[in-house]
Write a structure and sequence with these properties.
Among the domains are: 92 residues, Helix-hairpin-Helix base-excision DNA repair enzymes (C-terminal) (Endonuclease Iii, domain 2, Orthogonal Bundle), CATH 1.10.1670; 118 residues, Nucleoside Triphosphate Pyrophosphohydrolase (Alpha-Beta Complex), CATH 3.90.79. Helix content is 39%, strand content 15%. The protein has 13 helices and seven strands. The strands form two sheets. The protein has a four-stranded mixed beta sheet with strand order 4-1-6-5. Strands 3-2-7 form a three-stranded antiparallel beta sheet.
Length: 327
């Protein structure tokens, strides 16, 4: 959960998740719709799909116990070098580096490195550095040492010119601080501008039900449920035509406020319409008419649609606008 999501945001989701799925076996057996609903609000939904794939492998191959070896951990879906090192060191006390973005920043400043931390070779270099430290100091607890580096980056060695060097316990060893270069280190690649997509969202309902549609199993927000939507900015006449293709005979179409949702690589600029129908039978394949309470309870609809689901009495978990699945 902490991959690409802040600790403060994760806490309530973590408790909800482990209350429903307290162990590896229950995660492995969970129905996908329930799994995605439990994850709703955290974004990057492929993370939880990979968790379930990993849980099933652990049940089948390792007798339900997560491997201790970082090399075996890295073979599980969704577990990379950082997560493997964090689990191996914190849970099992094994000397293994856990180098995340915070640690990369700390080590870059300590060593005065101007190497780009987005380069995988640079990450490997710093992982080797941490591993050498763990192996050379028998008194070091691997989990505590890794967590100390992470906390130093999260609380003191902050990015964007906000480093609290006066509070830092290792500032006397920091080359960047000594040379007053902490604001220019670490070095990162410039971010590419996000692609903008224009979409028209249809918030469709009759007296008791709303319409949802399941997204494809691959691509952005794969396999989640959504409000009917189309590419481009449609006119009222085009919305009427699109509604009829879905199997809806509107009695009224009302424009809704525009909305923008930001994903990691793309922005949706959305134009919305409230589409009222007398009844919602005879919908096209892939579309469901469901009571709002049931949608809220059973179907995972990303908060990209939150501005429009409020008109359908469907509530959502809150999430960081960057945290959507772009796999």
């Amino acid at each position: 959960m902490l991959q690409q999501t802040r600790v403060e945001a994760v806490r309530p989701y973590f408790h909800r998740f482990v209350n429903e799925l307290p162990d590896i076996a229950s995660l492995a057996q969970c129905d996908e719709e329930k799994l995605l609903k439990l994850w709703e609000g955290l974004g990057y939904y492929n993370r939880v799909r990979n968790m379930q794939k990993a849980a099933r492998i652990v049940m089948e191959t390792y007798g339900g116990e997560l491997p201790h070896d970082p090399g075996l951990l890295k073979k599980l879906p969704g577990i990379g070098s950082y997560t493997a090192g964090a689990v191996a060191s914190a849970a099992y006390g094994i000397p293994a580096p856990a180098v995340d973005g915070n640690v990369l920043r700390v080590l870059s400043r300590l060593t005065g490195s101007y190497a780009c931390i987005d380069d995988p070779k640079v990450r490997v270099h710093f992982e080797d550095l941490v591993l050498d430290l763990l192996n050379s100091e028998e008194s070091l607890d691997p989990g505590e040492f890794n967590q100390a580096l992470m906390e130093l980056g999260a609380l003191v060695c902050l990015p964007n010119g906000q480093a609290r060097c006066a509070e830092c316990p290792v500032s006397d060893q920091c080359i960047a601080f000594r040379n007053a270069h902490q604001d220019s280190i670490p070095v990162r690649k410039p971010k590419k501008p996000r692609r903008v997509e224009h979409r028209t969202i249809l918030a469709v309902r009759d007296a008791t039900r709303t319409v949802i549609h399941k997204r494809p199993q691959r691509g952005l927000l794969a396999g989640l449920w959504e409000l009917p939507n189309l590419e481009g900015e449609l006119t009222d006449a085009q919305v009427l035509e699109a509604s009829r293709r879905i199997g809806i005979n509107p009695v009224r179409i009302t424009p809704l406020p525009d909305s923008i949702h930001i994903f990691s690589h793309v922005e949706w600029h959305m134009k919305g319409y409230l589409v009222l129908a007398e009844e919602l039978d005879g919908l096209a394949d892939g579309y469901l008419a469901v009571e709002p309470e049931r949608t809220q309870r059973e179907y995972s609809v990303p908060s990209a649609f939150a501005r429009y689901t409020e008109y359908l009495n469907i509530r959502h978990g809150q999430q960081n606008t960057e945290n959507e699945d772009f796999q």
